[in-house]
Amino acid sequence: MASRLSFVIIEPSALPANSTTIIFGALLFTLLLALSGCIRESDITAEQRAHQLSGELMCPVCDGQTIDGSNAQIAVDMRLKVRDLLDEGLTNAEVRDYFVIRYGEEILAAPERSGFNLLAWIVPVLIVLGAIGIALLSIKNMRRSGLESQSIGGTSVAIERNQDDLSDYLAQVDRDLGMSSDTNLSLNADSNSDVLKDSNETGISEKANS
Amino acid sequence: MADLGVMALMLGLALSAYSAIGAVVGEKIGMAELVVSARRALYMTTVAAAVASAALINAFVQNDFSIAYDADHSNTLMDRAFVWVAFYAGNEGSLLYILLALSVISAISVWFAPKRLARSMPWTIAILAIIQLFYFGVLTFAASPFELLDTVPLEGRGINPLLTHPGMFSHPPLLMGGLIAITIPFAFVSGALIAGNYGDDWIDVARVSALIGWGVLGTGMLLGAWWAYTILGWGGYWAWDPIENVALMPWLVLTAFIHSIMVQKRRGMFRMWNVALLNIAFVLAQLGMFINRGGPVVSVHSFAASTLGMIFLVFMLASLVFAFALFLWRMPQLKSDRAMESFVSREASFLINNFLFLSVMAVTLWGVLYPLFSDLARDVSVSVSAPYFDRANGPVLLGIVIMMGIGPLLPWRKASARSMKQWFVWPTLVGLIAIGVLVALEIQRPVAIFSFGVLAFVATSIAEEWWRGTAARHRSGDNWPLAWWRLVNGNRPRHGGYIAHLSILMLALGIIGTNFYQQRTDGALALGESLVLDNYRIEYVDNGDSSRPDRIAQWAEMSVYEIDPDDYKQEISFAKAQGSSGFTLKDSTLRPNDELIDTIEPWHGFYIDFNMASVRSGIRSTVVEDLYVIPRDFLADGRVSLAVSINPLAWWLWASGPFFILGTMVALWPQAAVERRPARKRLKDESEGEI
């Protein structure tokens, strides 16, 4: 999901059409592979199911531990009970209900996804969506305010921008030559290209800025 | 000894009060001498805290049980090495330790503060002094570690058995130290804002101090996980317990900060945002202190029966109000120098990564507070534990890992289509191949497979960066290792970051492996019997007693064999029919292909005075998987009851630690040419007059 998101934020113009197709094709392929894995997921043993369930039930006498992790006697008994109930053919939900009736909702390690407790699960989704939304919006706003200040900007800004534009181009040259953007000065000095020397200077000025 | 400690604390109280008032008044009336003296008073609080700590440690060394804290946390049987652990084993002592750590790092950071921050130093000193004042006050009036007992007991209660583990020498001090270290960047930035120093003068000191706090806190959490894995005997390492969460939350925010501060450093952007992040981290650290001291949520870790909750709640709310007010007051001055140019740039990806970190923090906070909320809203108690956090945070954490592969590959300002293609082809390809291979190998769990693909993607992106940079240098004449070394040295913050990223990948590998592929079984063995799980046969060979006056303790010797499942066809199919993952063998005859690979000695102790069991799990660890044997109990009939699990890739969890520390150190290591100069200059300035 998140990887797809990262492609959503890429402007369409940033990538040529065919590479977008390739990437989306690759993603689709991945998804299919993942799905095929889903189908093959084998049945798990009753013991594994019991462990899973034990990890979802809190130990009533220990602070903040599930019965799966606790060595308290009641946890041992509850683990055995879980296994018994599963052997009797109860579903996971029925086992959970069995304990909720006896110990209250507190026995569940995670609130159920129904009723009031739905709130516990919806809020995280809202938080994450909200956070991503705010991030994208603020980038958009920062871009717009940048464009405005550019049009009314004075000469100093213009000069700085010019330099920046050049350094971007030069950084591209660096990359094309197989050097990272951090390529240090001695390396650039080795090459006799004037362009690279210039990039060298902008590199210095940028470092001085920071 | 107790008197000396009390006196030192009171002296520290007076000194920190003087320092706070002196710094502010001296600044306001323009009396430089008063500010200098306030600064020196702040140095002296370190001495006061150190003397009080020494007095308490000395009491432990001498078994002075007239001091209640000593009698509660030590006895004559305790190994003397644990005196250091006993020092912070309880509520009062840990507060004293926190104060000691705070005063030491305050003094160091004020001493080495860059000269260009001179204008804001009085305020920074005042903030540090006020926070110290709070701790000196608490230790003097509310939770004195030097409380005396009316009747001196002959023997102390002893140290909490769960703390007698090597990890305890460093886990609590690092964790508490990391939490309190957030105070330093907060104090420097707040000081600069109050003084109206809006420029970027505070960037370096805030970055370095935040990075130190981040590294210390992270290491502390990892050590805690390791401790839980080896000693707590529940087979896990991270329980999403409230106390773990309150340490994790500020760490997440600091992680966001150390990324976005680089944007400010390089591009002059995100100023407001960085200040906000530090404020949030500081307030969350105070929330952590509050929940630790008798907060309203249940936890295994909290200091029992602490009445300090209210005091720390008030302090937390005060810091919240202060941070928020300061931020609102100075917000208009914190504008960015430059604008964002593209969605596809490193700064944009850092902003997105920041929001992802913050949303994990917010979701975790919501989970921590939800039980309270439910109690208040409808009077029904609920629990929010690991199953909730795994599900709620897992996807976003994976998103963060994906961003870890994307962000560093993007150039500053704006990525061109060509560079994107050039840089992302290999990582994407390797990620997809990894997924394909895992599917072909019929590995189960699609979510985990996708996650492994993501890890491969990120690892390749780092390898690609290093490969291209190193190859370029190699072409210009350096040999390979030297070329790589020069590359890393050329930009240590960046390449230290890559090393830290690698450690996170290793951690993620361990988390995915143990969470998705763990196999478990329970059983009870008599001597000579064996338990078989997957490819392992564990035979109970011998046992022994290692009881001491304070505990009933036993160990078991077990031989670990690697088996060929074909030898056990009958038993395996029978166990399957029973619904069991493993099975027990009564006789000790070996099958043809059994091969002895290891011997483990799980240990189980019951501490009478504490009514508490402590275990040392028997662990056979390899790069691929851990065989992990928890001795649950030695039964009356001579059998030992075991919980056995196979934890795939668990080794990587702990292997990530050294890389995490190394990466932090590389990123921190001062750039010689830039950083040394002000330090030398300072010495000269010092003689001419301070600040």
What can you tell me about this protein's structure?
The complex is a heterodimer of chains A (210) and B (691). Chain A has 210 residues and is an all-alpha fold. Helices cover 70% and strands 0% of the residues of chain A. Chain A is built from nine helices and no strands. Chain A has helices at residues 2-8, 17-40, 46-54, 73-87, 92-103, 118-152, 155-176, 185-190, 194-209. The two termini of chain A are 36 Å apart. Chain B has 21 helices and eleven strands. Chain B is globular, with a radius of gyration of 28 Å.
The portion of residues assigned to helices of chain B is 55-70%
Count of folded domains of chain A = 3
Total helices of chain B: the number is 21
Give a quick account of the main beta sheet of chain B: strands, pairing sense, barrel closure.
7 strands, antiparallel
Number of helices of chain A: 9
Based on the model shown, name its key terms.
heterodimer, A: 210 residues, mainly alpha, Helicase, Ruva Protein, domain 3, 3 domains, 9 helices, 0% strand, elongated, disordered N terminus, disordered C terminus, B: 691 residues, alpha+beta, seven-stranded antiparallel β-sheet, four-stranded antiparallel β-sheet, 11 strands, 11% strand, globular
Summary?
Chain A is an all-alpha fold. Chain A contains nine helices and no strands.
Furnish the topology, listing elements before pairings.
The complex is a heterodimer of chains A (210) and B (691).
Chain A: H1 2-8, H2 17-40, H3 46-54, H4 73-87, H5 92-103, H6 118-152, H7 155-176, H8 185-190, H9 194-209
Helix pairs in contact in A: 3-4, 7-9
Chain B: H1 2-28, H2 32-61, H3 68-73, H4 83-87, H5 91-111, H6 121-142, H7 171-181, H8 183-195, H9 203-232, H10 242-267, H11 271-292, H12 309-330, H13 346-378, H14 386-406, H15 417-440, H16 446-475, H17 480-490, H18 492-517, E1 519-525, E2 530-533, E3 536-545, E4 551-562, H19 569-578, E5 582-585, E6 595-600, E7 603-607, E8 612-616, E9 618-621, E10 625-634, E11 640-648, H20 651-668, H21 672-688
Antiparallel strand pairs in B: 1-11, 2-3, 2-5, 3-4, 4-6, 4-7, 7-8, 9-10, 10-11
Helix pairs in contact in B: 1-2, 1-6, 2-5, 2-6, 5-6, 5-7, 6-8, 7-9, 8-9, 8-11, 9-10, 9-20, 10-11, 10-13, 11-12, 13-14, 14-16, 15-16, 16-17, 16-18, 17-18, 18-20
